[in-house]
Design goal:
It is a single chain. By secondary structure, this protein is mainly alpha-helical. The protein contains five helices and no strands. It has one domain (9-134). It is 70% helix and 0% strand. The longest helix has 42 residues, at 9-50. The two termini are 27 Å apart. The relative contact order is 0.17.
Length: 149
């Protein structure tokens, strides 16, 4: 039955592309607001008010990561590196800001953390700039090899 078969390499890569694009657009929107609405001074003040350590460094760093890393994620460029940065970003957001609101206060951050960890572990898949750069046309997800005869 279709629902219980393993996914093909193409289906896996399409799933990774959907995950990259969805998570990337969320990060772009948040990074855009930090960079172009609040600016570095506003983000630094906001991070300081929320109790984030070293707000003068972490605020601008996160703003740049979310905007430009989000773009990289959407196109699948340096995916594992960007996803690792996002995973750390979401861990920080949960621990320093959201955790005090209880379990229901950080659903989006948990989803973005899970998405980031998934992409850091699997890579971008075949529909990405990463795949073009290394000249591979196979997905980054391992597929089982047939048994030898």
């Amino acid at each position: 039955m279709f629902l219980f078969r393993s996914s093909s390499p193409r289906q896996l890569s399409l799933g990774l592309a959907a995950l990259r694009i969805t998570a990337g657009t969320v990060f772009i929107a948040h990074g855009y607001a930090k960079l172009f609405t609040f600016g570095f001074a506003g983000v630094t003040g906001m991070f300081g008010h929320m109790g984030v350590p070293f707000p003068g460094v972490t605020g601008p760093l996160i703003a740049v990561l979310e905007f430009f890393g989000g773009i990289a994620l959407v196109i699948g460029f340096l995916t594992r590196l960007a996803a690792l940065g996002f995973a750390l970003d979401m861990i920080g957001a949960i621990l320093f800001v959201k955790l005090k609101g209880g379990f229901s206060g950080y659903e989006m951050e948990r989803l973005l953390l899970g998405s980031s960890v998934t992409l850091a572990l699997t890579g971008a898949g075949q529909f990405s700039v990463d795949a073009l750069l290394v000249g591979r046309h196979k997905p980054s997800v391992a597929t089982p090899t047939p048994p030898s005869r």
